Amino acid sequence: MTSRWLTARRATLHPPAARLLRRDLQMLPVWWCEPGSTILSQCCSADAEWLREIGDAFGIDARCIAINHLQNHRFCYRPWGWNRDLRRRLLNECVAADQLPSTCRIDRLRELSHRRISQRLHRHVSDWLQHSCKVGISPVVLPEVPYEAHSVAEVREYERSHPQCYIKAPWSSSGHGVYRVLEPESRNFEIWTQGVINRQGSIMCEPALAAVQDFAMEYCCNAGKAEFVGYSVFGNDSHSAFSGGIVAPEEELRDILVSQLGDSRLLEAVKEAVRAFVEVEIAPHYDGCLGVDMMLYDDCGVVRLNPCIEVNLRMTMGAVTALFARRFLAEGVRARFEVVQSDAETMRRLAEENPPLIEDGKYCGGVLMLTPIYHDARYFAVIR
Fold first, then answer.
1. CATH 3.30.470 domain locations along the chain
2. Which of 240, 261, 223, 249 is closest to 326 using CA atoms?
3. Could you give the CA distance from residue 244 to residue 233 in angstroms, rounded to a whole number?
4. pTM of the entire structure?
5. Do residues 54 and 61 make contact, with C-beta atoms less than 8 angstroms apart?
6. What is the pLDDT of residue 9?
7. Fold of the domain built from segment(s) 113-143+209-318
8. Per-residue pLDDT tens digits for 101-157
9. Is 147-206 a domain of CATH 3.10.129.10?
């Protein structure tokens, strides 16, 4: 039974931009899939040719398949992230139910994706670090635990003691459903906040922090165990969405963080604390990659660590960079990973003018397109 990698990213509603993003980046799993894997493709013939070229260059063993051929095979399905809509669509393609997680399991994953898991992880890390103080780590100051509000009045009360705070929809990620409270008495604020509470039952409130460096710790769950797979050091745009990340060996990314934080033992303690939490709370219910977004922030001239901005219970762009670096980055090379919004002609010209340098199956430089360039594509995954 081979693995099946899917790139579904949204549940139920698929606006044009989200559908196009999913189609344009559908072959991205080739960079982390297991040997012998099969990738779902909407452009199977073109993707098969691209896969042969990439396979020859990097020694990758993968193939693609059209969705209407799924019924003829049995696979272990590993999508970008699970939801009920994806399960329904696969069942409609005559995929046997025993190849898919049950609706109860998917509902459990949805519960674990609620932002209140950040509260639990904050408290777990705090308790872990208090114990670590007894074995040589200095006392650590962490930011306040996120607060869950159930009314607009509660949010306004929180904002009075935490000016310009952030409020977040409980089920949201990657910059979606995030609102910075600049005018708490405005009608727009009230409408947005009440709408989230009406739809999702509550809203999460967090203090605004002076970011020094956004980063994440990436983990993989399998058979009830959690493994640390690497750091992701990245930037966010004005909407708190991923804008690009550094592709480098794990040790180099760790050194970047330690140089700013000034305490390698604290970083290691947080890494192990989060791994332990994931193994107990998430791994029994989930197989696959996940990312815990974190932040180094300035607190009156002292750089401190926020151990959990959010938990992304799915494959993440940070995990893509970490796994690519493990498998395909040549020694001594450092690059940048980006998802670029452009057009096919511009990206073809960029790739032709700066062809990738590949030696012994390792990326050494140049522009590497991580997905095919379709004639009508608008989104492109690039390392350069």
1. 113-143+209-318
2. 249
3. 9
4. 0.91
5. no
6. 41
7. D-amino Acid Aminotransferase; Chain A, domain 1 (3.30.470)
8. 999 999 999 999 999 999 999 999 999 998 876 556 667 889 999 999 999 999 999
9. no
